[in-house]
Amino acid sequence: MTEKLYYADSHIKEFTATVLSCEKTDRGYEILLDKTAFFPGGGGQEPDEGTIGDARVISAFEHGDDVIHITETSLEAGTRYPCAIDWEKRFARMQIHSGEHIISGIVYSRWGFNNVGFHMNDEFAIIDFDGELTRQELDWVETQANIAIGRNIPFKAEFPDAQTLKNLHYRSKLELTENVRIVTAEGYDHCACCAPHVKLAGEVGGVKILDFMRHRGGIRLEIRAGLSALADYRQKYESVAAISALLSVKQPEVASAVEKVLAEKAALAFENSRLVKQLVAAKADALPAFDGSRAVFEKDFDSDALRFLVNEGMKKTGGVFAALSGEDGSYRFVAGSEKADMNAFANALRQKLSARGGGKGHMIQGSIAATRQEIEEFFAAISF
Questions:
Q1: 216 and 292 housed in the same domain
Q2: Which residues contact residue 265 at a Cβ distance below 8 angstroms, ignoring those fewer than 6 apart?
Q3: What residue ranges in 203-250 does DSSP mark as E strands?
Q4: Among residues 225, 277, 261, which one has the least CA distance to residue 98?
Q5: What is the domain extent for residue 311?
Q6: Per-residue pLDDT tens digits for 166-224
Q7: One domain, residues 226 and 326
Q8: Which of 164, 228, 264, 318 shows its CA 20 to 30 Å from the CA of 100?
Q9: Using CA atoms, how far apart are residues 128 and 194, in angstroms rounded to an integer?
């Protein structure tokens, strides 16, 4: 049985241990130590990483009462090695996980909603509750959680005896009866959990509920804590500051300024659309009647403008009328006819000009990988 140092002290960063066995497997070398501070994962938290001697620990897992470490290189059985966990990752995870306990405890205490799903990485955690909360209620939860952190409430982890456990009201997703580890955030939460946590809430630094959405009859939250929350704030601050400078407005006015810009953009797009329609209509009116098939090339026409032009142009064309926009080797096209077999035309277009696309009725559209000269020669030769 591996002596689990992470249960005795969640803040052990370095220790010395003896390798009891080393076995090569498909995923690396499986190392068994006589004792370890490497958390093997569980409770929604990923396994620790770090080093045993010069060997990099990339993961760990529980096997019965033992903790197995996965390393990239082999180690000598019977040899004692200095070991070190990746403390930066571990501490970031403890900040987020401990922040989650405070939030879950507050939600359970206030509304009776259970935490029914939890997953975290090194940056954020996802929490699922079996009841819905509003943005205003979540703001209140966030405030209360940060008050708890400011009060620096203690965290305690212990294995209560059977009688104590029987009389203890605690949160748990599973029915547990023995070897139950209870993590207590004093005054806020009692929860069955196997993961390492902070010793004092002040270590969490702060928590932020970033986003929420309805999920399976309840609500799903995304939260950050500690250094991860600080990194998120810095990134968003830089974005807001950049937008503020670009729009020449104060930072609190960024949202309304962006709304104004979007409204102006929509108005310009509407006016542009109106002018394009006028231009296309004028070009269509200027088209002479023609018995055969023909292709016209227009610069910077979008699909709507091409379709409008073809709708008008095929009324004056005995064969197929096509409008194209782009450059040699890459054209967008729309083609139509009131009389020609467009299925036969589409097949010919694919065979001769490497065209892609399709349609139905009297009109097709897509792309052509050919030069303007090749396209014009094709239209000069076809007969429908």
A1: no
A2: none
A3: 207-215, 218-225
A4: 225
A5: 287-381
A6: 899 999 988 777 789 999 999 999 999 999 999 999 999 999 999 999 999 999 999 99
A7: no
A8: 164
A9: 19
